[in-house]
Amino acid sequence: MDTKRLILFVIMSFSILLLWDSWQRHQLSQNPQDSTVVTRQDQSIPASSSINQNAQSIPNASTFSLDSGQRINVTTDLFNVSIDTIGGDIRHLELLKHRAADSNDKNFVLMDDTALPALYVAQTGLIGNDLPTHKSRFNADRSNYELVEGKETLEVKLSYTNQDVDVNKIYVFHRSSYVIDVRYEIHNKSSNVITPSVYYQIVHDNQSNQGTRMMPTFTGGAYFTNSDNYKKIKFADMSKADFTKTSTDGWIGLVQHYFVSAWIPADNLKREFYTKKLSDSIFSIGSVSELGAIQPSSTFNVSARLYTGPQTQSELKKTAKGLEYTVDYGWLTVIATPLFWILSAIHSIVNNWGVSIILLTFLIKLLFYPLSAASYRSMAQMREVAPRLQSLKDKFGDDKQKLQQAMMELYKTEKINPMGGCLPILVQIPVFISLYWMLLGTVEMRHAPFFGWIKDLSAIDPYYVLPILMGSTMIIQSKLNPKPADPVQAKVMMIMPVVFSVFFFFFPAGLVLYWLVNNILSIAQQWRINKVIHKENLAKKKGNVSR
What we know:
Blueprint: H1 3-28, E1 71-75, E2 79-84, E3 90-99, E4 107-115, E5 118-127, E6 139-140, E7 144-146, E8 153-161, E9 165-174, E10 179-188, E11 197-205, E12 220-225, E13 229-233, H2 235-240, E14 244-247, E15 251-256, E16 259-265, E17 271-277, E18 282-290, E19 299-310, H3 313-319, H4 333-350, H5 353-367, H6 369-396, H7 400-414, H8 422-441, H9 465-480, H10 487-504, H11 509-546
Parallel strand pairs: 1-7
Antiparallel strand pairs: 1-2, 2-3, 3-4, 4-5, 5-11, 6-8, 8-9, 9-10, 10-19, 11-18, 12-13, 12-15, 14-17, 15-16, 16-19, 17-18
């Protein structure tokens, strides 16, 4: 196999793996087959008898609006939260430890209701017996709450009352935690048994947080159960039909690049996960559970947890089973997860994510050194015999059969395996793809500085220094590789570094840093092996002359 075919083989193999990875991700985001379509009179409120309900179609809604009451402001060490007295919804949520995507001075706003059609709110409610839904008006004793020094928790209590029930809705915020507890205290004042249901939902639009064309990211619904594991639900699928899934465990929520909000109902509570189309661009994703009978003069408590914050793996794992899968590495999770563990371990020592990427690249390069050496040795041998191959092509011209026979004889004489450079490279490709997705999806890279002008490893290099250096290393690599005999192929190989550099202009600096360091190490290894092979060939020629 000549150099041209070797290069094309590697490129095609790498492309096939990337396409396979993309297809796998597409399949994971499809609607599960056991979903059903349900009808509810109020499009925004799940029916209390929705579990095991017969499937019917839903008419499309064209408009959506939120009523507003008074706002209750809550400040903790991690959040600035605004709760509306209508429904007790979380209407606005800022993450104090994370900056806005385009600013180092403003906090990242995860939830907000002020920029329709862009919308992101968390709602809860009770169904049945005139109980309060997310459209009911609650009362609050205060309008401002703050988690003060020395306190580990902060309670925000809202109340609702009518002639039959007293209901308290209580938010509990915890220091250093992105988990918010939500508890309902339901007191039945009537002389009748009541049978309420509780629902928890996230309302979101289908237009925001979709990434860029160069790096599209998934924004949509997701749920986890012990039986189904982690599943994603696209907004496009929600538009076609409502989704439902019954379970006794798990969570449901909204995932986007770097962040997630997930409702985690109480353990052993039977639940129905659902999605609803509320308007042409607004959807709800939630869980509804029947609570059973509450006797007259009795009080019943039910709790749930809302995780809303960054996709930090340590936080996700300790919050709920399967929540760590929202950091989506696709079908290569089995490789990407230990890579992130190693990267985190390195960071705990050096305290710089950029330096951690460099050291991880060294470790991976060291691990694959024997395979890389075999590949580079094959390329170096091909480089040494390139002039002789060109002579054979000149000699045999268009007689491809004789040319092929002569080339195979040359490979046999020189003990060259023309396929020797392919398999080692193919073995490493899954690791490269895993690193790509791991670095792309790691929230710890967000606004993480490296050195000098690199203030954010998740953003593009503002001065394009790393992409330019990356292109330069590719040019150097092309000089070390065997030169294609075909002039057209030679020109293509000269243009490729420029083309790839343009692509890397739009990649996060952390990814470009990894590829740059990997290329530098590859150049050093290939240069050394080329030198060794060249000396071996010179020694062989001298030996032949002396005979």
